[in-house]
Amino acid sequence: MSATASDSIMETGTFVNCFLLVISLVIIPVNGGYDKERDALLKGTFPQDFIWSSATAAYQIEGAWNVSDKGPSVWDTLAHQGRVYNQDTGDVACDSYHKYPEDVALMKQMGLKYYRFSISWPRIFPTGEQQDGVNQDGVRYYNALINELIANDIQPMVTLFHWDLPQVLQDRYGGFLNNHTTNTTVIHDLFGDYARFCYQNFGDRVKYWITFNEPWITSWLGYGVGNFAPQHNEPAEGQYKAAHNIILSHAKAYHIYDDEFRAAQNGQVGITLNCDWGTPKTPADADAAIRYIQFSMGWFAHPIFKNGDYPEVMKTTMARKAQEEGRTTSRLPEFTPEQKLSISGTGDFFGLNHYTTVEVTDACCTPIENPNYDTDKDVGTGHAPDWPRAASSWLYVVPWGIRNLLGFIKEEYGDPEIYVTENGRSDHDQDPAIMMDMERICYYMMYTNEVMKASNMDNVKVKAYTAWSLLDNFEWLSGYSERFGLHYVDFNDPTRTRYPKASSVFFKQLVRNNGYPEGSEFTKYVENMWYFCHNTTEAEVNGYTGGASQISSLFSLFLAIPMMIAYSLIA
């Protein structure tokens, strides 16, 4: 089966199998307890200029890990040490280095007008340093990808750093640990050189730049606990040193664009931060929930979007802990006055990656023998028993969390323009493959409707929604055991053939309708699926329970599935 319009995965011959799969899902909760007001379907559309996109990252899809003069990244090193599930690596991954025209064709088929991808730093500068030489084949590849996108009326949104630090920079300078207290450290200058080169070579066509993707991951998992690349284990201080340097590196890249390129290229530069919504388990945990968010998203957002410095609750908490630990200075570094001025306001937009929600409890203030970032927050986290879990152990489906988080960003950071740069749901890798991925359809349906509520009801300036991911890909330490893609990739096939899943058909219709317009056939489909996706029925929501409720749920599916099949045949 090829990834063409005529080869739908929901063709008539597979209807029975797909229907049986959906029926099996009736007993699987998708969204826990239903709140009649909070969870009701909002009909309407997004603003006309709303951006619909999908996303990938270089190490997760490109492959070609040592083609031409590309240098090794810290993730090449980790994977080749056998530290990934099943000893998987990104050596080939989706082979998008060679198959990028096919990927662009998939986007065009879905009606997408934007695509978020990342540039691999060691594919451009093999050692991370421009003075050591430029890999012209890497420049050729990204030019070819960008040109292919533009030729198909798809705008590139480019991330400069999505975790694949050149291994040489880690070996030579300690990566993002390098001399963290100085404003002119080598890593800042080197990231600035890399950013400038990308602006010079691609900026005439790229109008959206993201400096760092999820610096929380690099800081804590990479330089704190050390289970992610570059595997530096220093959980008391490593994450704070790395984050300090990343924030300063971001500011440097922003100012380079602002000073040297903005006037001619007229683009935007932002950063993408990841955050789970933290909801208090009890009213007494309200302050702890805010502290949880400030220690995660606020760690980076407060300096960049507020005042150039860390959140006050983070500074006071870490100062108290320094006293408890008998330290003369806090483990949280300090910015100089000049650095604060340089950092503040260095975001043209707020990039947000959001997947899930946690319940937060207060855990203050017991002294800890071996302090680390997790204990520094003085919170506990868990999940409500009625929140269903995806294939990823950390991903619970709680759609209303994204609306709350978007509202928090609006109020806390001065009402910035927000680009949702990742949101999605994982399935297990299994045989037979999950192609009629109804739980992912439900996830996108519910989460995008919550984003529309934030936009249309709460007046949040949310400008974009990006599905993670365009393709099944290398999911970091989980390897290929978890699948987030709108398109299935056969990793046992040397040609890495792509196949559209049912969710790609749904997402195409969502993009085409720009939301859930009143009276549209697409919205009728969503209405028929809405209560099923929330593991309830219209009868139960309105106070009538009993055997008729299950019949009602099945009847909704009978109405919805033929419509989905019809969409697949005309897609």
UniProtKB/TrEMBL annotation:
Keywords: Glycoprotein, Glycosidase, Hydrolase, Membrane, Transmembrane, Transmembrane helix. InterPro entries: GH, GH_1_N_CS, Glyco_hydro_1, Glyco_hydro_1_AS. Its EC number is 3.2.1.21. GO terms for molecular function: hydrolase activity, hydrolyzing O-glycosyl compounds. One of its GO terms (biological process) is carbohydrate metabolic process. It is an enzyme of class 3 (hydrolase). Gene3D superfamilies: Glycosidases (3.20.20.80). The chain crosses the membrane at residues 12-34. SUPFAM superfamilies: (Trans)glycosidases (SSF51445). PROSITE patterns: GLYCOSYL_HYDROL_F1_1, GLYCOSYL_HYDROL_F1_2. Pfam families: Glyco_hydro_1 (PF00232). The active site is at E422. Signal peptide: none annotated. The keyword NADP does not apply. Homodimer. Belongs to the glycosyl hydrolase 1 family. This is beta-glucosidase. It comes from Branchiostoma lanceolatum.
